[in-house]
Structure formats: C-alpha cells, structure tokens
Q: What sequence folds into this?
C-alpha cells in the first residue's frame, strides 16, 4: 500500500550505483497568486474561464472523511480542508491559513492566522479551531499521529495566534503543518458530531475552496465551489468523485470519456494501456519497500534479512508494480539527502555501505549463516490496493528460491492499514511504501524508532534500537547541513547493516487527465493541497 508520494528523483546508473540528484521540478510552473491573499496556489483569479464539472475517479471506497480514522480521506479532504502552510511546486513552504510564522526559540513556533477566513457555515476561523484540529490529529490511536510524535503542546495563544512547542529541536518541523496530516476543521462542529464526524450524513466542516456536499462510501462524493472562500471562488464549479472497485474498471471508464481525472494511479503502465491516456508524470520520492518484523521468528535473524535483500530482483518487482519507478537499495531514497549534502558526498556514502544488489548466490550464502539454513514458512498480510497483490506474488516467488515460503493473506486495504499501524508486535512483514511527506531525509523516520511503535505509527519492522532512536533525534536537532549529513550517514550505515527494510524502488508521481483540461503546475506535492485549483480548460 502506498501511503504517500512526494518530491525529487534519483536515477541509478548501472556502474557504481551512483545517483543523480535533481531538483523536484518536473514540468511544474510557479502557481498564480489567488485573489484574496498571497500564497494561495493557482487561485480563482488566474483564469476567467469556468469549468462546470470535473469528474474524478478513485479506485477505492471511502467510509469516512475523518483522516484520523482513514488516512485515505486526504483524497477528498485536500480539496476542502486547509492547512496552516502549504507546499509550493518545488516543495517550498508557503502561506495558507497562516500568513506568517516565527521560530521564537529552539522548540517554539508561532503562527499568525489569516484574517477574515470563515468556515462553510459562516463561523470565523480562530486559533482555537487550529489548535483543536492539530491536537485531534495527534491524539493516541489517530492514523496520522505519527506526524506529531515530537510535539509537546499546541495552543491558541490568542484568537489569531497558534503556538507549537516541540519536545526537542526539529529541523524538519517546518514542513509538518503543510502535510496532509494537518488539516484544519471547525472545533464546534466536530464536538457537536463527535460520534459521527466525517461519516456520510455528517461529513466535516472546513474553510477551503470546495464545500463537501455528500459522501456515499461505495459510490462516490460531491463537492461544490465555496462562494465565500478567502482566495476567491474556484473556477471548477463542481467536482464529482466516483469510487471504483478496481483500477481496470476505472481505466475503461476513462477510455469511454466518463471521467476526466484519476489523480492517484497505482499502476501507471497498465492504466495508460487500458485507458489510452497520456499520463502526466513527474519525478517523485515515494518509495516501495519490503519491511520485515524484526521481532518475529525468521525475520528476527539478520542473515535472513540480508538474504531477502539479495534475493529481491528490483526490475521484476517494478514490472509487477506497473513501471514508472527506479530501483533503490536503501529505505530512504538517496535523493532526499540533497538538502544536506552534495551529489558527490551522497555517492560517496552509497559506495561505502552494503547495498545488496540482486545476487541469488549471496542470498543463499546468507541463509546458510542464519538459524534457518533450510528456510521457513510464514504468513504475510497483503493489501488489495492496485498492483500491490502482483508485487507480493513476485516477492513470494523470489523468496521461495531461498527457502522462505510465504502464505499470502489478502485483506481489504483499510483492514490492512489497521494492522500495520496498530500494535507493533502484530504488524505483519509486508510490502509497503510511501512516507515521503516532505523534502527532508527525516521524512522516512516515520517507519523507524520507538516513537512509531505506538498505535498510529508506521514502524512496520518493530525496529527501534536505542542507537537508532539517538540518531533520529540527532538528525533533526540541528539545521547545520554538514552535521545532519554526518548523522544520516551513520543512520544509513546502521540500517543497511541491520536491514529491517529492503528498499525496492522510488516511484514517479502520475495522473491521468482528459485532453479537455491542462494542469500547468502538476507536481509531486499536489496531494497536500487543493490540487484542482491548478486545472485549467484546454485552449
């Protein structure tokens, strides 16, 4: 299951596994400023033409718009709920509900709210709503609590000021309020509908450019342009979402001209072939990995985990995934180190650590050194999203060659998510991915460390050595690039030695859009905000 997508791409060369580090630009252009305030991406004033209806397809159902209970809610919430700050096309942080912010101390951030913002019911947005929303998101058991593990408190200092206090300095915090894990809603509305918040019939109460009108968990959802949005009325008057049981059926509907956009393609190559669409594509940093629960028999043997790393053939897995991806050999895509190191420094690091390129002979040698020289049998929970089952079948076939016999147990993706971010000891060894919420190497810490063992965390591998916790803390304790690179070099080395995760690929960000429209600022960060603001009628 892909949890999340984002920024730059690494291109692996055949010789020496050097990586080319590029800025996350793709075909993106700077968005036009919206009417009503600086920093509103691709606002209503950018074009006088209106679009009466945009038809969007999603290949899953959605039972709730409460992201703390269903992380996939961002597919609709992102058009309607806003964040304090937002990502620009290059991953830069820009104003959104906050017009300015200050770091007033090593662990203190103060956000000053935009004036005149109102929720859809006409009530004004206040700092109390913001603090309540973010505290709600970070509560124990929330599907998005992992984003706030370093937060000590979030308080409304006055009606237009929010203060965030961290438990320790964190150089990556500046990105968190822009993430899809940090949507703002109305406190009064949530409290009045606490037991049904986000569900059909209740929905949510936001301030964004589109008002959510309806949600049917098996059919779809409807949103309409908010005439009172602070950024000016959006040019797309109505957006109709249709939920599909499979991406294939959705692709056939796209081919028939019955939908205009699929913003979340899980199998780009197959979708393009079936739909006839010319896909939008830009380099991303969402990864695919095989995470092994290091506390469970078999997977708790480091030689087994290294054997697995050698045994998994990335081109085979990428083909099953659907293409539009590049092999990697680490959990964190190396291009994310570009914010703290030069290309030559990153390549030097990669040349100094074990990368476990495909080698079946070495895989068998590692198994021979393990406590399971003849292999073992295990059950692996897999999700039913997109091509994930196809990838899991390839993984099972390749591990069978070294004696590891996997029985695959397919689950609804929502059920699978509940297991993988539930109690750590019960998390299944699994193929997973995503995690790239920000253009910083710390973003993949969501899959590591003791903080992410709690319910709501995504530490698939139940992997939390004290030394790794220390490195994770040191990596964000300073903004000094050289010091941060030194720490992440040690972390990369430790992870490659212990191999709790096998990095498999980094995927492109793709979407299918009807020829009736254009999307000039399509970029890897579009999921974090009201992406439909960037869609225009074709000339």
A:
């Amino acid at each position: 299951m892909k949890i999340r997508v984002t920024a730059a791409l690494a291109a692996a060369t055949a010789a020496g596994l050097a990586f080319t580090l590029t800025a996350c630009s793709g075909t993106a252009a700077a968005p036009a400023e919206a009417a009503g305030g600086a920093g509103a991406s691709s606002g209503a004033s950018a074009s006088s033409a209106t679009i009466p209806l945009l038809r969007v397809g999603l290949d899953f159902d959605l039972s709730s718009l409460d992201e703390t209970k269903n992380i996939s809610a961002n597919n609709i919430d992102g058009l309607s709920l806003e964040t304090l700050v937002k990502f620009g096309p290059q991953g830069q942080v820009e104003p959104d509900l906050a017009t300015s912010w200050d770091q007033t101390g090593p662990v203190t951030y103060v956000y000053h709210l935009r004036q005149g913002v109102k929720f859809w019911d006409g009530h004004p947005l206040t700092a109390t709503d913001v603090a309540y929303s973010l505290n709600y998101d970070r509560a124990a058991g929330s599907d998005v609590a992992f984003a706030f593990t370093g937060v000590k408190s979030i308080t409304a200092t006055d009606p237009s000021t929010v203060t965030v206090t961290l438990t320790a300095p964190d150089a990556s915090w500046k990105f968190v309020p822009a993430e899809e894990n940090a949507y703002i809603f109305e406190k009064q509305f949530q409290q009045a509908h606490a037991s049904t918040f986000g569900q059909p019939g209740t929905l949510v109460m936001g301030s964004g450019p589109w008002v959510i009108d309806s949600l049917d968990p098996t059919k779809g959802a409807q949103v309409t342009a908010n005439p009172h949005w602070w950024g000016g009325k959006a040019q797309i008057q109505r957006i109709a979402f249709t939920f599909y049981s499979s991406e294939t059926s959705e692709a056939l509907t796209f081919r028939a001209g019955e939908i205009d956009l699929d913003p979340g393609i899980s199998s780009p190559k197959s979708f393009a072939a079936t739909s006839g669409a010319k896909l939008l594509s830009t380099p991303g940093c969402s990864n695919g990995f095989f995470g092994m629960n290091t506390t469970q028999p078999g997977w708790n043997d480091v030689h087994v985990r290294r054997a697995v790393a050698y045994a998994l053939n990335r081109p085979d897995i990428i083909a099953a995934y659907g293409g539009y991806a590049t092999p990697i050999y680490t959990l964190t895509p190396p291009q994310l180190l570009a914010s703290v190191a030069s290309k030559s420094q990153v390549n030097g690091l990669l040349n100094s650590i074990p990368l476990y390129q495909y080698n079946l002979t070495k895989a068998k040698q590692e198994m021979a050194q393990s406590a399971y020289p003849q292999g073992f049998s295990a059950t692996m929970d897999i999700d039913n999203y997109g091509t994930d089952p196809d990838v899991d079948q390839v993984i099972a076939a390749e591990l069978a060659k070294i004696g590891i016999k996997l029985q695959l147990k397919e689950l609804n993706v929502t059920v699978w998510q509940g297991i993988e971010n539930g109690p750590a000891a019960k998390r299944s060894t699994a193929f997973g991915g995503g995690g790239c919420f920000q253009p910083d190497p710390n973003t993949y810490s969501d899959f590591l460390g003791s903080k992410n063992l709690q319910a709501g965390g995504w530490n698939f591998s139940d992997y939390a050595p004290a030394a790794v916790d220390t490195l994770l803390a040191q990596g964000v304790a300073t903004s000094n690039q050289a010091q941060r690179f030194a720490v992440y070099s040690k972390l990369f080395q430790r992870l490659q030695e212990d191999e709790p995760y096998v990095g498999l690929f980094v995927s492109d960000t793709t979407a299918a859009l009807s020829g009736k429209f254009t999307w000039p600022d399509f970029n890897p960060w579009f999921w974090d905000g009201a992406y439909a603001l960037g869609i225009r009628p074709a000339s």
Confidence is low (pLDDT under 50) at residues 1-47. Residues 192 and 202 are 10 Å apart (CA to CA). The longest strand covers residues 501-513.
